[in-house]
Amino acid sequence: MPLAAEALLPVGHTLGVVLAVLLLAAVAVASLARLAQDDGRSYARSVLTAGLRAAAQLAAVSAVIGWVVGAVPSLLAFVALMLAVAIRTAGRRITPNSTWWWAAAPITAGVLPVLAVLLVTGLVPLRGIVLVPVAGILTGGALTATVLAGRRALEELETRNGEVEAALALGLPLREARLEIARPAAAGALLPGLDQTRTVGLVTLPGAFVGMLLGGASPLMAGAVQLFVLVALLLVQVVAVAAVLELVAFGRMHRLALLPAEGE
Asked: Distance (Å, rounded) from C-alpha 135 to C-alpha 129?
């Protein structure tokens, strides 16, 4: 239903101007509020860079998506690229050292089994464009959960290191001592997904639902697809949080500076 989509958000000069104003406003607020990252760098530059990258990447995807979905190998390659980018992004957000690559475990452990079930059952066909947005939504959810859980767990262990030492002195294994401190903080990464699921239809109408309606689907069909996406996202995020928590507890992911001989 292209006419409905154009009526909702017509693509033209006005859209470009409004997008630029919104992005610059976000940059200005971040700068005035002095929002800064852990290393002291302002978030203003990150907001500007993220907005420009999003525009460039969406333009590139729009140009090649027709070719990508035309054959199974290119389709699978595109999904693999999505996973690779998500793994690096999540890993580098959690830690600056070479243990970042362990982010591959929580992201793939959450996304790949769910995608496999959907493909095997035929709910998502291997051919066509359906696989790309579904894989993107699941990968994005895993990325968010992994970053939040990993950062919160490591920050909590740094802040409450004395409690970990005390637990070790009482005879707890290192893994158990770390889990006692990090688990509640890491579990907080599930809150955005839980709140989105609880308030769907009341506070927000997510993209899958709106997209289905604009594509001509009935409200019932759009609601069913959105419910499927939300439930799948919950599973992906729960698996990702559980996996990253175990990685932190076992010391596979940390923020210690490694010696050159150790890979840094």
From this structure: 11
d(CA 109, CA 242): 10
Buried b (16+ CB within 10 A) or exposed e, 55-64: eeeeeeeeee
Predicted confidence at residue 29, as pLDDT, reads 95
The answer on pLDDT for 260 being more than 50 is no
Token pair 């005390």 is found at 166
First-residue to last-residue Cα distance in the chain? 53
Q: What is the pLDDT of residue 142?
A: 95
- SS3 per residue for the chain: CHHHHHHHCCCCHHHHHHHHHHHHHHHHHHHHCCCECCCCCEHHHHHHHHHHHHHHHHHHHHHHHHHHCCCHHHHHHHHHHHHHHHHHHHHHHHCCCHHHHHHHHHHHHHHHHHHHHHHHHCCCCCCCCCHHHHHHHHHHHHHHHHHHHHHHHHHHHHHCHHHHHHHHHCCCCHHHHHHHHHHHHHHHHHHHHHHHHHHECCCECCHHHHHHHHCCCCHHHHHHHHHHHHHHHHHHHHHHHHHHHHHHHCCCCCCCCCCHHHCC
Residue that wins the pLDDT comparison between 109 and 9: 109
The answer, as to whether pTM is greater than 0.70, is: yes
Nearby residues of 235 by Cβ (< 8 Å), 6 or more positions away: 110, 114
**CA 150/CA 125 separation, integer angstroms:** 33
**Tokens, residue 102:** 């362990």
User: Is there a contact between 20 and 55 (Cβ–Cβ < 8 Å)?
Assistant: no
| pLDDT, tens digit (0-9, with 9 covering 90-100), for 114-151 | 999 988 888 888 876 788 888 999 999 999 999 999 99
- What does the mean pLDDT of the chain come to? 84
